[in-house]
Amino acid sequence: MKLTQWKRLAAAAAAVFLLSLAAFLPDIGDPATLTFDETWYVPTARDWLAGAAMGHQEHPPLGKLLIALGMWLAGDNPTGWRAMSAAFGAATVTAVFFWGFGLTGKIGRALWAAALTFFAGAVFVQARIATLDIFLMAFCALALAFFTFSIKATSRSRSIAFALAMGVSLGLAGACKWSGFFLLFGLASVYLLIGLLRTWGVRFSDPKPSDFFSEAAWPGMSPSVAVAAFIAVPLAAYFVAYLPQIVRAGDLYEFVASHERMRDIMSGSSPSHPYASRWFTWLWMGRPVWYSFALRGPNWGPDAPASAIVALVNPVVLVLGEAAVVLALTRWLRFRDRDGLIVTVAFFSQFLPWALDPKGLEFFYYYFPATLAFGPALALGIFQGEDRRRRVVAAAVLIGAAAAFAFFLPVYAGGIGVTPASLAARLWFKSWI
Known about the structure:
63% of the residues lie in helices and 3% in strands.
């Protein structure tokens, strides 16, 4: 890629980040009280800043440390609680932009995929609440971008560099939540599959450069590099995230003890929760999660709208995105398409493992990392070929997604407020209440 294109790519990425951040910050302090799982993570960050040991041992420390960093920078207030979430929300959209560019090779199409990711709503909601999931999403999206650049690189040195950067991102994703390692296993399985097919010497009568196991693909991924990218580097990044906790404890064994505590928590039974939902119901958004609902006066009505935040995915993006993932799966299975494989693994490796969750307690927002595949999947499906009619379809999809996002914005951003009538118009099914 020429220097001028790198400059254009960097300028576009900077614009995506800044515009996303500017969209996430307004009224981020509403509600002014802790909401949903903020009641776990903000006190944990507050105690950490006060010199206490790391609390809330159910998850690794990185996300909690990042929340604490935001509070250290912006203060122990609603804006400080959520500042790093907003920054990493913008980083998530930007990482999807890079991923989209890696898949399509076009800055315009990558911008389209990033815009659709923004309008999907999942990143918007998570970027405005002090929980761990947006950090996980950012590192997963970044890992997917690096993975795509690595497998498509023509230079061995660049392919290796991108693969190692992917490993760092995967390790940091796991350091936010263990579910970040779902993607690591999915991407590692791609390497194993390609290696197996090459070992067998599989050949087809119509070989294509886009074959996912083509000898020309992934020039830097030798067995030794794979061990580094999928094992050594992720584990090193994961361990580094624990260093502040280890130093404060004054004992290297804290790393082991922390995992023993997490193991005990994860293997225990969980109480029921009103917003819990089975993993397969996420496909049709059977039970969204209410993050917040607060009245602003004694009488809820047109003159006193309530603040509401519901973790909904934009239905337009949800339906079209899932269809696009199925199309990508079909392209991979029928045509051995590399891009189709990347999107397929990105989605299913972050979705299907929840069927085996030992705790048996899942929530719809666990689906959000998988939904990051929707924008790139739709970009692949719609922009396949140079037909001008596809541009019309792309414009229609983007306009429809933007309109639906604007419609649901009152239940994405608590500061806007909803009346009984406006809330009822946005809660389409009884299970959404």
